Structures
1.
Amino acid sequence: MDWSEAFETGLSVIDAEHKHLIEFITLLGRADVGQRRRFTDKKLLEDLYTLTKIHFETEEDFMFKADFLLLDSHLGEHSTILGTLRTLIDAFAVDGDAQPVLDFMSRSIVDHIRGEDTALADFIRSKRQGKGKPDPATRGKGGVRKP
Ligand SMILES: [Fe+2]
Ligand SMILES: [Fe+2]
Protein backbone atom coordinates (compact mmCIF):
# COMPACT_ATOMS: atom_id res chain seq x y z
CA MET A 1 0.00 0.00 0.00
CA ASP A 2 1.41 3.36 -0.97
CA TRP A 3 0.28 6.88 -0.31
CA SER A 4 -1.86 8.20 -3.12
CA GLU A 5 -3.59 11.47 -3.87
CA ALA A 6 -6.84 9.53 -3.63
CA PHE A 7 -6.30 9.58 0.15
CA GLU A 8 -6.12 13.37 0.35
CA THR A 9 -8.86 15.02 2.36
CA GLY A 10 -7.74 18.58 1.59
CA LEU A 11 -6.80 19.37 5.20
CA SER A 12 -3.03 19.62 5.19
CA VAL A 13 -2.38 18.70 8.83
CA ILE A 14 -4.53 15.59 8.60
CA ASP A 15 -3.17 14.64 5.17
CA ALA A 16 0.42 14.92 6.41
CA GLU A 17 -0.33 12.60 9.33
CA HIS A 18 -2.17 10.12 7.08
CA LYS A 19 0.81 10.10 4.72
CA HIS A 20 3.20 9.45 7.59
CA LEU A 21 0.99 6.68 8.98
CA ILE A 22 0.57 4.95 5.62
CA GLU A 23 4.29 5.20 4.89
CA PHE A 24 5.08 3.65 8.26
CA ILE A 25 2.63 0.76 7.71
CA THR A 26 4.06 0.23 4.21
CA LEU A 27 7.61 0.21 5.55
CA LEU A 28 6.73 -2.39 8.19
CA GLY A 29 4.94 -4.46 5.53
CA ARG A 30 8.11 -4.59 3.42
CA ALA A 31 10.18 -6.08 6.24
CA ASP A 32 11.23 -9.68 5.70
CA VAL A 33 10.61 -12.46 8.23
CA GLY A 34 13.92 -11.91 10.03
CA GLN A 35 13.31 -8.19 10.34
CA ARG A 36 9.77 -8.80 11.58
CA ARG A 37 11.06 -10.87 14.49
CA ARG A 38 12.79 -7.74 15.69
CA PHE A 39 9.59 -5.70 15.66
CA THR A 40 9.25 -6.49 19.37
CA ASP A 41 12.80 -5.54 20.28
CA LYS A 42 12.49 -2.29 18.44
CA LYS A 43 8.94 -1.71 19.64
CA LEU A 44 7.94 -0.81 16.09
CA LEU A 45 4.37 -1.97 16.50
CA GLU A 46 4.09 0.07 19.68
CA ASP A 47 5.33 3.04 17.65
CA LEU A 48 2.57 2.31 15.14
CA TYR A 49 0.04 2.29 17.98
CA THR A 50 1.36 5.60 19.34
CA LEU A 51 1.42 7.20 15.90
CA THR A 52 -2.18 6.12 15.29
CA LYS A 53 -3.32 7.36 18.70
CA ILE A 54 -1.64 10.74 18.24
CA HIS A 55 -3.19 11.08 14.80
CA PHE A 56 -6.66 10.30 16.16
CA GLU A 57 -6.14 12.92 18.86
CA THR A 58 -5.25 15.49 16.19
CA GLU A 59 -8.48 14.75 14.36
CA GLU A 60 -10.50 14.78 17.57
CA ASP A 61 -9.14 18.23 18.33
CA PHE A 62 -10.40 19.39 14.91
CA MET A 63 -13.77 17.77 15.60
CA PHE A 64 -14.26 19.43 18.99
CA LYS A 65 -13.30 22.83 17.65
CA ALA A 66 -15.60 22.53 14.65
CA ASP A 67 -18.56 21.09 16.58
CA PHE A 68 -18.56 18.20 14.17
CA LEU A 69 -22.00 16.64 13.83
CA LEU A 70 -20.71 13.09 13.55
CA LEU A 71 -18.39 13.42 16.53
CA ASP A 72 -19.69 10.42 18.47
CA SER A 73 -19.58 7.94 15.62
CA HIS A 74 -16.14 9.14 14.53
CA LEU A 75 -14.80 8.86 18.10
CA GLY A 76 -16.33 5.40 18.30
CA GLU A 77 -14.56 4.36 15.11
CA HIS A 78 -11.20 5.61 16.43
CA SER A 79 -11.76 3.73 19.66
CA THR A 80 -12.65 0.51 17.78
CA ILE A 81 -9.55 0.76 15.58
CA LEU A 82 -7.26 1.37 18.56
CA GLY A 83 -8.89 -1.49 20.50
CA THR A 84 -8.39 -3.96 17.66
CA LEU A 85 -4.85 -2.71 17.06
CA ARG A 86 -4.05 -3.26 20.75
CA THR A 87 -5.46 -6.80 20.64
CA LEU A 88 -3.48 -7.67 17.50
CA ILE A 89 -0.22 -6.21 18.86
CA ASP A 90 -0.70 -8.23 22.05
CA ALA A 91 -1.26 -11.35 19.92
CA PHE A 92 1.94 -10.57 17.99
CA ALA A 93 3.82 -10.53 21.31
CA VAL A 94 2.69 -14.14 21.77
CA ASP A 95 2.84 -15.67 18.29
CA GLY A 96 5.32 -13.34 16.52
CA ASP A 97 3.07 -12.96 13.46
CA ALA A 98 2.92 -9.30 12.46
CA GLN A 99 0.81 -9.88 9.34
CA PRO A 100 -2.60 -9.56 11.05
CA VAL A 101 -1.54 -6.17 12.47
CA LEU A 102 -0.36 -4.91 9.09
CA ASP A 103 -3.37 -6.30 7.20
CA PHE A 104 -5.79 -4.77 9.68
CA MET A 105 -4.10 -1.37 9.66
CA SER A 106 -3.76 -1.22 5.86
CA ARG A 107 -7.44 -1.99 5.43
CA SER A 108 -8.93 -0.02 8.29
CA ILE A 109 -6.90 3.15 7.83
CA VAL A 110 -7.74 3.37 4.14
CA ASP A 111 -11.43 2.65 4.76
CA HIS A 112 -11.46 5.18 7.57
CA ILE A 113 -9.75 7.90 5.52
CA ARG A 114 -12.15 7.42 2.63
CA GLY A 115 -15.16 7.33 4.90
CA GLU A 116 -15.19 9.14 8.23
CA ASP A 117 -12.11 11.32 7.67
CA THR A 118 -13.31 12.55 4.30
CA ALA A 119 -16.67 13.45 5.84
CA LEU A 120 -14.86 15.33 8.62
CA ALA A 121 -12.64 17.22 6.18
CA ASP A 122 -15.64 18.13 3.99
CA PHE A 123 -17.46 19.43 7.06
CA ILE A 124 -14.52 21.57 8.20
CA ARG A 125 -13.86 22.93 4.71
CA SER A 126 -17.47 23.88 4.25
CA LYS A 127 -17.43 25.64 7.62
CA ARG A 128 -14.24 27.50 6.69
CA GLN A 129 -15.78 28.59 3.43
CA GLY A 130 -18.56 30.13 5.46
CA LYS A 131 -21.34 28.19 3.88
CA GLY A 132 -22.95 27.99 7.28
CA LYS A 133 -24.61 24.68 6.58
CA PRO A 134 -22.71 21.42 6.68
CA ASP A 135 -22.91 18.82 3.96
CA PRO A 136 -26.39 17.20 4.03
CA ALA A 137 -24.75 13.78 4.16
CA THR A 138 -23.29 14.57 7.55
CA ARG A 139 -26.34 16.23 9.03
CA GLY A 140 -28.62 14.95 11.74
CA LYS A 141 -26.87 11.72 12.64
CA GLY A 142 -26.00 12.46 16.24
CA GLY A 143 -22.70 13.83 17.38
CA VAL A 144 -23.41 15.31 20.76
CA ARG A 145 -20.29 16.86 22.18
CA LYS A 146 -19.04 15.20 25.33
CA PRO A 147 -18.38 17.39 28.38
FE1 LIG B 1 -10.52 9.67 11.86
FE1 LIG C 1 -7.40 9.94 10.01
2.
Amino acid sequence: MENDEAPLDTLRVLRNMLSSHIFFEENYLFDIARNPENAAMINGLEAEHGGILQLLDKIEDYLVRGDVARSKDRAEGLERVLEAHDVSEMDTVYKVLDDRVDLKSVISARESITVPAGWKSKVLAKYDRKR
Ligand SMILES: [Fe+2]
Protein backbone atom coordinates (compact mmCIF):
# COMPACT_ATOMS: atom_id res chain seq x y z
CA MET A 1 0.00 0.00 0.00
CA GLU A 2 2.82 2.38 0.87
CA ASN A 3 4.41 1.90 -2.55
CA ASP A 4 1.06 2.45 -4.28
CA GLU A 5 0.79 5.89 -2.68
CA ALA A 6 4.37 7.00 -3.42
CA PRO A 7 3.76 8.16 -7.03
CA LEU A 8 0.65 10.08 -5.92
CA ASP A 9 2.55 11.73 -3.08
CA THR A 10 5.34 12.68 -5.49
CA LEU A 11 2.80 14.03 -7.94
CA ARG A 12 1.17 16.15 -5.22
CA VAL A 13 4.55 17.63 -4.27
CA LEU A 14 5.20 18.40 -7.94
CA ARG A 15 1.72 19.94 -8.31
CA ASN A 16 2.33 22.22 -5.31
CA MET A 17 5.67 23.35 -6.72
CA LEU A 18 4.28 23.99 -10.18
CA SER A 19 1.14 25.72 -8.85
CA SER A 20 3.33 28.03 -6.82
CA HIS A 21 5.51 28.73 -9.87
CA ILE A 22 2.49 29.44 -12.08
CA PHE A 23 0.65 31.53 -9.48
CA PHE A 24 3.70 33.68 -8.88
CA GLU A 25 4.43 34.22 -12.57
CA GLU A 26 0.85 34.97 -13.55
CA ASN A 27 0.15 37.28 -10.62
CA TYR A 28 3.52 39.04 -10.31
CA LEU A 29 6.29 38.43 -12.82
CA PHE A 30 4.33 38.43 -16.06
CA ASP A 31 2.75 41.81 -15.26
CA ILE A 32 6.20 43.29 -14.67
CA ALA A 33 7.67 41.75 -17.82
CA ARG A 34 4.78 42.23 -20.25
CA ASN A 35 5.38 44.74 -23.07
CA PRO A 36 4.00 45.15 -26.60
CA GLU A 37 6.77 42.99 -28.06
CA ASN A 38 6.35 39.98 -25.75
CA ALA A 39 2.61 40.15 -24.94
CA ALA A 40 1.70 37.38 -27.40
CA MET A 41 4.54 35.18 -26.09
CA ILE A 42 3.37 35.70 -22.52
CA ASN A 43 -0.19 34.79 -23.53
CA GLY A 44 1.31 31.59 -24.95
CA LEU A 45 3.14 30.91 -21.68
CA GLU A 46 -0.15 31.33 -19.80
CA ALA A 47 -1.77 28.84 -22.17
CA GLU A 48 1.09 26.42 -21.45
CA HIS A 49 0.47 26.86 -17.72
CA GLY A 50 -3.11 25.71 -18.24
CA GLY A 51 -1.87 22.71 -20.23
CA ILE A 52 0.66 21.83 -17.53
CA LEU A 53 -2.04 21.82 -14.83
CA GLN A 54 -4.35 19.75 -17.03
CA LEU A 55 -1.55 17.22 -17.62
CA LEU A 56 -1.03 16.95 -13.85
CA ASP A 57 -4.76 16.23 -13.45
CA LYS A 58 -4.56 13.57 -16.15
CA ILE A 59 -1.51 11.90 -14.60
CA GLU A 60 -3.25 11.83 -11.20
CA ASP A 61 -6.41 10.42 -12.76
CA TYR A 62 -4.46 7.58 -14.39
CA LEU A 63 -2.53 6.86 -11.17
CA VAL A 64 -5.73 6.71 -9.13
CA ARG A 65 -7.20 4.28 -11.67
CA GLY A 66 -4.02 2.18 -11.59
CA ASP A 67 -3.19 2.82 -15.25
CA VAL A 68 0.56 3.12 -14.76
CA ALA A 69 1.43 2.94 -18.48
CA ARG A 70 -0.76 5.93 -19.36
CA SER A 71 0.39 7.89 -16.31
CA LYS A 72 4.01 7.36 -17.37
CA ASP A 73 3.21 8.40 -20.93
CA ARG A 74 1.60 11.64 -19.72
CA ALA A 75 4.47 12.23 -17.26
CA GLU A 76 6.93 12.01 -20.16
CA GLY A 77 4.76 14.49 -22.05
CA LEU A 78 4.78 16.79 -19.03
CA GLU A 79 8.56 16.63 -18.88
CA ARG A 80 8.82 17.68 -22.54
CA VAL A 81 6.33 20.53 -22.04
CA LEU A 82 8.21 21.76 -18.96
CA GLU A 83 11.56 21.74 -20.79
CA ALA A 84 10.14 23.78 -23.68
CA HIS A 85 8.27 26.08 -21.28
CA ASP A 86 11.44 26.78 -19.34
CA VAL A 87 13.35 27.72 -22.50
CA SER A 88 10.50 30.00 -23.67
CA GLU A 89 10.32 31.77 -20.31
CA MET A 90 14.05 32.30 -20.14
CA ASP A 91 14.04 33.80 -23.65
CA THR A 92 11.14 36.16 -22.96
CA VAL A 93 10.07 36.92 -19.41
CA TYR A 94 13.29 36.34 -17.48
CA LYS A 95 15.44 38.07 -20.09
CA VAL A 96 13.31 41.22 -19.73
CA LEU A 97 13.28 40.96 -15.94
CA ASP A 98 17.06 40.55 -15.82
CA ASP A 99 17.39 43.97 -17.41
CA ARG A 100 14.70 45.77 -15.44
CA VAL A 101 14.40 44.54 -11.88
CA ASP A 102 16.37 43.02 -9.09
CA LEU A 103 15.33 39.48 -9.92
CA LYS A 104 16.74 38.04 -6.70
CA SER A 105 14.56 40.26 -4.51
CA VAL A 106 11.48 39.55 -6.62
CA ILE A 107 12.06 35.82 -6.43
CA SER A 108 12.76 35.92 -2.71
CA ALA A 109 9.37 37.64 -2.28
CA ARG A 110 7.89 34.42 -3.64
CA GLU A 111 8.78 32.65 -0.39
CA SER A 112 6.06 34.57 1.46
CA ILE A 113 3.32 33.96 -1.09
CA THR A 114 0.75 31.22 -0.59
CA VAL A 115 -1.36 29.95 -3.46
CA PRO A 116 -5.00 30.57 -2.43
CA ALA A 117 -7.22 27.50 -2.05
CA GLY A 118 -9.25 26.91 -5.20
CA TRP A 119 -6.98 29.12 -7.32
CA LYS A 120 -6.91 28.42 -11.06
CA SER A 121 -4.46 29.60 -13.69
CA LYS A 122 -5.67 32.44 -15.94
CA VAL A 123 -6.45 30.22 -18.91
CA LEU A 124 -8.25 27.52 -16.89
CA ALA A 125 -10.28 30.19 -15.04
CA LYS A 126 -11.26 31.65 -18.42
CA TYR A 127 -12.44 28.21 -19.62
CA ASP A 128 -14.51 27.85 -16.44
CA ARG A 129 -16.27 31.18 -17.12
CA LYS A 130 -17.17 30.06 -20.66
CA ARG A 131 -18.87 26.83 -19.54
FE1 LIG B 1 5.85 29.31 -16.19
